[in-house]
Amino acid sequence: MKIILSKEIGFCFGVKNSVSIATKVLKENKKSVYMLGPIIHNPQVMENFKKEGVRIVDRVEEIPEKSTVITRAHGVSYSILHQALEKNLSIVDTTCPYVKKVQKIAEYLNKNNYFVVIFGDKMHPEIVSLLDIINNNALVVDKVTEIKKIKYQKKIGFISQTTKNIYNFEKLSSKLLDKTEELRIFNTICKATVERQKSVIKLARQVDIIVVIGGRKSANTSRLVEICRQQGVKTYHIETKDQMKYKWFHPEDNVGITSGASTPDWVINEVINKLKEWYN
Amino acid sequence: MKIILSKEIGFCFGVKNSVSIATKVLKENKKSVYMLGPIIHNPQVMENFKKEGVRIVDRVEEIPEKSTVITRAHGVSYSILHQALEKNLSIVDTTCPYVKKVQKIAEYLNKNNYFVVIFGDKMHPEIVSLLDIINNNALVVDKVTEIKKIKYQKKIGFISQTTKNIYNFEKLSSKLLDKTEELRIFNTICKATVERQKSVIKLARQVDIIVVIGGRKSANTSRLVEICRQQGVKTYHIETKDQMKYKWFHPEDNVGITSGASTPDWVINEVINKLKEWYN
Q1: Are residues A215 and A271 in the same domain?
Q2: What is the mean pLDDT of residues B200-212?
Q3: Which end of chain B has fewer CB atoms within 10 angstroms, the N or the C?
Q4: What is the mean predicted confidence (pLDDT) over B256-271?
């Protein structure tokens, strides 16, 4: 068996940033540190934070006054920040800088009377906070059929969730042209995400099977799985080594490994070591 | 034989506008009326103007002082207008309003530091005058391969010659997204052109053969021919009834007829009458 790693693997810049800020806060103040939802979409990393004493809650109401609250890499809405401030919480915002940029662009388009269309997953926290920031003044789409229903608009501004598939973004963009006189597109898909997607396409050409390691709720991980399958390669999505099955592989296989942007190196290494144990 | 006309046929708004302005000028002043190139791309219409006494020239230098000069529907560059003014010519500008709009948008994008990309035919008079207006500060492209060569730009403004194929414009748009952070597209393809292209696609589904009537140099006519052929229908491009051949048809054929935006009704009617003579 030959194991080939994708050129882009492990934590991305935004996740590194978020995790390192949270780790620093924890070192300084082990008591009463809360997270408003998982700061990144990786259960193993979140489990470690819990062991360190962090409590993960869903709503500001659950956090006692004067505690420290760490907000997630996917962004936080103004209304939640406001609630937290009212409660005298000490706020540590770990929003990914690329996500912040999308928020600024969406606000700009909104103020300048563009009909804002967002390519994204309606339920993803990045989109939920983004919509809150622009008072729900946008349409979130995921498919060409949803674009076909849009009425003719004078000006359309089109942006994307940072972790979406660039090829689908391009496809939807071209369909939007039919709906407006002016289409202003900001390519807000994070470059690291694009590079990771391009790397996995190259990887798919070299291997018989691909293992994608990452959280079940991680949007960028799901996208990698989708892209691998589009390439016609047998693809498995696992969170940890324990979900991997011996019978998936053959000793002669070339096996490709990639990971989502929130998968830590140690989880990836465990998968590689297990494969080596089995087949070398 | 069944003859089916395309829903959109004959002069478009811009051509009607240009021809009616020129006709009015001719009525008022038969002497010393010049045209700077053919005001529309239809040889039969231009032949009629010549019979009425109009002289068609290529350059301002050929026009005597104090004459009247009619500029074409495709637009006229500022430098030519300037030359004409210096020579005390009386200028009648028949630029199509939709073409004027493209010129304004190109100037706006240029001033706002967009890298301007134009989907167009480098030699077409609309593009030649447009480029002159923005001091050649733009890249004219016609194919995906030309887009692939573009270096990464902070902001790209993308516009189109008014008579290009909307489907190709969409295709090129999506390729440009890879080249920039912000892509601002103005859909400057004239709506009448788009409607004509859509109509011909519908027509192609109903007929065995399509006859496209229009000038050899007419960009929008060439586009209709291209679109018909893409639909897999046998297609002939003629300027007048005399270029049509009896052997092209079969008595049982359903024959579709369409025309470019600068083809006058009488030329179309002659074609229809000839077909009826042959096959009814």
Answers
A1: yes
A2: 97
A3: C
A4: 96
What pTM value is reported for the model? 0.82
Q: Could you tell me the residue range of the domain that residue B106 belongs to?
A: 98-189
Residues of A within an 8 Å Cβ radius of B? 166, 169-171, 173-175, 177-178, 180-187
Kindly identify which residue of chain A lies nearest to residue B159, measuring between CA atoms: A182
Contact A184 B187 (CB under 8 A): no
The residue of A147, A187, A197 whose CB has the most chain B CBs within 10 angstroms, and thus the best one to mutate to test that interface, is: A187
Q: Which of A175, A182, A187 faces B177 most closely, judged by CB atoms?
A: A187
Q: Which of B140, B150, B138, B141 is nearest to B177 (CA)?
A: B150
How far is residue B241's CA from residue B261's CA, in Å, rounded to a whole number? 17
Above 80 in pLDDT, residue A30? no
Torsion A94-A96-A100-A106 (CA) sign: negative
Asked if A149 and A209 sit in the same domain, the reply is no
Burial A41-66 (b: 16+ CB within 10 A, else e): bbbbbbeebeeeebebeeebeebeee
Q: Are residues B84 and B146 in the same domain?
A: no
Q: What is the structure's pLDDT at B29?
A: 78
ipTM of predicted complex: 0.79
